[in-house]
Amino acid sequence: xxxxxxxxxxxxxxxxxxxxxxxxxxxxxxxxxxxxxxxxxxxxxxxxxxxxxxxx
Length: 56
Known about the structure:
By secondary structure, this protein is an all-alpha fold. Helix content is 75%, strand content 0%.
């Protein structure tokens, strides 16, 4: 995997996590509910990044 691609992916995932937390979607939710909200968002972010900029 290209190092720049990995760094950009990490920054985008961190940005998505920050955005979800700042919108308050995790308030008063269990860890399972938080995961059910967060993992599809991360999947979409990674999917869009890899469609725009394939690593191989």
